[in-house]
Input
Amino acid sequence: MPIVVNLDVMLARRKLQLNTVAERIGITPQNLSVLNAGRARAIRFGTLEKLCEVLDCQPGDLLAYQSEARPGGVRRSTT
Output
């Protein structure tokens, strides 16, 4: 999947534990762990907003787009 989740980076920068953030934003640690592992298929804007509030960051700090490699290991050009 070309969307990369950088939640673990923000948690480390803020010196916060996943369980603490989950409690503050009102979701289960398991659901936040699924997002952190990049296995989530969707995220609600409300959850993203709460994450940004608790972590004092922008959505782009948590999510990034990374193009998928083409067959043969050649990446698609972004220009």
User: Anything to note?
Assistant: The domain at 3-65 is CATH 1.10.260.40 (434 Repressor (Amino-terminal Domain)). The CA atoms of residues 25 and 56 lie 13 Å apart. The helical segments are 7-14, 18-25, 29-36, 45-55, 59-62.
